[in-house]
């Protein structure tokens, strides 16, 4: 991973003018020696309504301190390196592409959070050990600029194989999987679709069809993508690797309300990311950490998440905001890979991809 965020669509929220979490800590080191403080360690994209965290603080008696540690990969690496003297009590934001790395390092203490019975079994990737708790999920997919395809009287692509067709030559920008979580997820989606033996041939063809590669989601979406409101349409690529939740973020705060989002999702190009939280082994405030994990899985926090981080709540009984249901796209059959498979092959796959695409 890189200096870019793990980049859930929380970055989109920032582009839409959302206010970041304030008054609840920030980047930096700290400990939980104060029994009345519970420390959450996360990536830079963590966000929550101040009123929601305040409600937890009032009910539990704990003051929440948030330490943000860069993108997901960077934050996980820091947590592993400091596991003998953890920065905090709970880690939020390790996803299925990095999960085995954290589990194999012994990063977490088992704890079955309250409310886990309301989480679909498919999201519970450590359901026997309860070392981590699924808290949200999202799908990384190719997004398209509706206006471009309407103007050119061209149907947008819908599958990975569609991206190889000559009518889409030179239209796609994606992120480098070595430096960007969305880029890695897109690569993993092509591997899940075409298999471990055939994915390199797919990328050779995609390269021949003019795919552009940049280092970060911000570059791809806000600078190169023609459909980005933040980029004001200055980009010339009508296809970009982003999120299924990007279209709702594009319409957030727009008045009058739009009939549909200006961007769409190629539903056959999606890879599902699930994010987890866990009680850090050696936590100084283990009791407070357990209470915080329970809260992160509570309906109160789960229903606050979508418009704060543009992810879907893990709880199946949590209400999703109308913005998501009206402008979002439900991904019924996303691709996925077992965390163990990703861990075993990730570095090799990235190196192989780099030699194929960047040289």
Q: What would you say this structure looks like, in words?
A:
Strands 1, 2, 3, 4, 5, 6, 7, 8, 9 and 10 form a 10-stranded mixed sheet that branches. The protein is an alpha/beta fold and 359 residues long. It starts with 9 loop residues before the first helix and ends with a helix. Helix 6 packs across helix 12. 36% of the residues lie in helices and 18% in strands.
Which regions have little confidence, pLDDT < 50, spanning 5+ residues? 1-33
Averaged pLDDT: 89
| Strand portion | 15-25%
Largest sheet: 10 strands, mixed
- The end-to-end distance, rounded to whole angstroms, is 20 Å
Computed CA radius of gyration, to the nearest angstrom: 20 Å
Looking at the structure, what is the overall shape? globular
Say how many strands there are: 10
Number of helices: 12
Element order: H for helix, E for strand = HEHEHEHEEHEHEHEHEHHEHH
SSE inventory with pairings:
Elements: H1 10-15, E1 37-42, H2 50-60, E2 63-68, H3 72-81, E3 90-95, H4 99-104, E4 108-109, E5 133-145, H5 146-151, E6 172-175, H6 181-208, E7 212-214, H7 217-224, E8 239-243, H8 246-251, E9 263-280, H9 286-296, H10 299-309, E10 312-313, H11 322-327, H12 339-357
Parallel strand pairs: 1-2, 1-3, 6-7, 6-8
Antiparallel strand pairs: 3-9, 4-9, 5-8, 5-9, 5-10
Helix pairs in contact: 6-12
């Amino acid at each position: 991973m890189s200096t870019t965020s793990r980049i859930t669509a929380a970055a989109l929220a920032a582009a839409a003018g959302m206010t970041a979490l304030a008054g609840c800590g920030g980047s930096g080191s700290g400990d939980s020696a104060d029994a009345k403080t519970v420390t959450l360690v996360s990536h830079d994209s963590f966000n929550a309504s101040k009123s929601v965290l305040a409600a937890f603080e009032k009910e539990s008696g704990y003051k929440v301190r948030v330490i943000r540690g860069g993108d997901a990969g960077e934050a996980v690496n820091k947590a592993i390196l400091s596991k003998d003297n953890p920065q905090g009590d709970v880690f939020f934001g390790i996803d299925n592409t990095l999960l085995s790395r954290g589990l194999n390092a012994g990063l977490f203490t088992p704890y079955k959070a309250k409310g886990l019975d309301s989480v679909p079994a498919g999201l519970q990737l450590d359901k026997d050990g309860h070392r981590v708790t699924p808290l949200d999920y999202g799908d990384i997919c190719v997004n398209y600029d509706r206006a471009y395809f309407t103007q050119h009287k061209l149907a947008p692509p819908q599958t990975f194989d569609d991206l190889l067709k000559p009518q889409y030559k030179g239209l796609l920008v994606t992120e480098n999987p070595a430096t960007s979580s969305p880029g890695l997820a897109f690569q993993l989606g092509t591997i899940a679709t075409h298999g471990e033996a055939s994915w390199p041939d797919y990328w050779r063809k995609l390269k021949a069809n003019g795919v552009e590669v940049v280092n970060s989601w911000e570059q791809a979406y806000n600078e190169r993508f023609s459909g980005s409101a933040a980029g004001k349409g200055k980009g010339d690529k009508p296809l970009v690797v982003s999120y299924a939740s990007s279209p709702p973020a594009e319409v957030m705060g727009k008045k009058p309300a739009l009939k549909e989002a200006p961007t769409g999702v190629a539903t056959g190009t999606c890879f599902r990311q699930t994010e987890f939280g866990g009680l850090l082994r050696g936590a100084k405030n283990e009791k407070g950490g357990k209470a915080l994990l329970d809260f992160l899985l509570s309906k109160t926090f789960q229903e606050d998440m979508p418009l704060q981080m543009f992810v879907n709540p893990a709880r199946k009984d949590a209400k999703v905001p109308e913005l998501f249901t009206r402008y979002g796209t439900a991904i019924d059959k996303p691709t996925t890979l077992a965390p163990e498979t990703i861990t075993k092959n990730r570095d090799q796959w990235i190196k192989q991809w780099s030699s194929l695409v960047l040289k």
